Amino acid sequence: MNAVSNPVTIRNVTIGEGRPKICVPITGQTRSEILEEAGGFSSIPADLAEWRADWYEDVFDTERLLDTAEALRKALGELPLLFTFRTKTEGGEKAVDDALYRRLNLAIIESGCVDLIDVELFSMEAAAKEIISAAHDKNITVIGSNHHFHETPAQEEIVKRLCHMRQAGADIPKIAVMPRSEQDVLTLLSATLEMSRHHADCPIITMSMAKTGLISRLAGESFGSAVTFGSASKASAPGQIGVRELKQVLDIIHGSLQ
User: Fold this and answer.
1) Helices (DSSP H) in the chain: which residue ranges?
2) Rounded CA gap, 224 and 70, in Å?
3) Is residue 164 annotated as a catalytic residue, yes or no?
4) What is the mean pLDDT of each run of 10 residues along the chain (258 residues)?
5) What is the pLDDT of residue 3?
6) Which one of the listed residues 21, 136, 138, 147 is annotated catalytic?
């Protein structure tokens, strides 16, 4: 698969070139659990770390949140860090309103501890514009995201949503869908191919969840998805597999495409 026209480089990782980059979630509930998970990253083949802060028990205490963010940044060294507060609406652990979502993300942006930030461009639309602007002011890459945990939208709708995220300022649009059948997985992959070939001027991330959608996490390079998610311990979404096994398969596919 050819590189996208505008790959995104964060620290020493370029998204949109070569094999799909592997992002590994950190899902600890306490500061010590979070830092313990981060300490293990030196021994796994991760290209990015995602802090799923909606799992963190003190996420709404700004002082503790920023203290943990600073410690996490130090623990990960030069590994790029993605901050994600996944709302209950889109499959996360905690429910928030627009005001709290805005405050949380703006505080993290201002801290300078993260390299990328996930912004839910549909469920948190009222807060998204300000968060995206603040992130770009700090040279933080924005992943615009949308999650469908009960269905797979039509191909045209998937493409439309990815295009909307890009137009709204996302540097990397992302969509995750739940398949009800094998045909739904083909729908997601077809939408990915259409988006990457005909609409995207940037890297995109797509996945079909659960066991049925596993192939979409493995074959992204063939269809145009630039990042895939694997687990070091606890999976953060249905269908994630272990990061070591994931890298083996990605390397085999990448080698066969050269």
Assistant:
1) 31-39, 62-76, 98-111, 125-137, 155-167, 182-198, 214-218, 220-223, 243-256
2) 34
3) no
4) 79 96 97 97 96 98 98 98 97 95 98 98 95 98 97 98 98 98 98 96 96 95 96 69 94 94
5) 61
6) 147
160 to 52, 93, 122, 153: CA distances (angstroms):
27, 27, 12, 10
The CA-based dihedral angle spanning residues 104, 110, 113, 117, taken in that order and rounded to the nearest 10 degrees: 60
Catalytic residue among 174, 198, 211, 234: 174
pLDDT for residue 70: 98
How many CB atoms are closer than 10 A to CB 20? 27
Q: How far does the chain reach from its first CA to its final CA, in angstroms?
A: 8
Q: How far apart are CA 28 and CA 46, in angstroms?
A: 17
3-state secondary structure 145-161: EEEECCCCCCHHHHHHH
pTM above 0.90, yes or no: yes
> Is 198 a catalytic site residue?
no
3-state secondary structure 192-225: HHHHHHHCCCCCEEEEECCHHHHHHHHCHHHHCE
pLDDT at 241: 86
Residue 36 CA from chain centroid, whole number: 21
Q: How confident is the model at residue 136, as a pLDDT?
A: 98
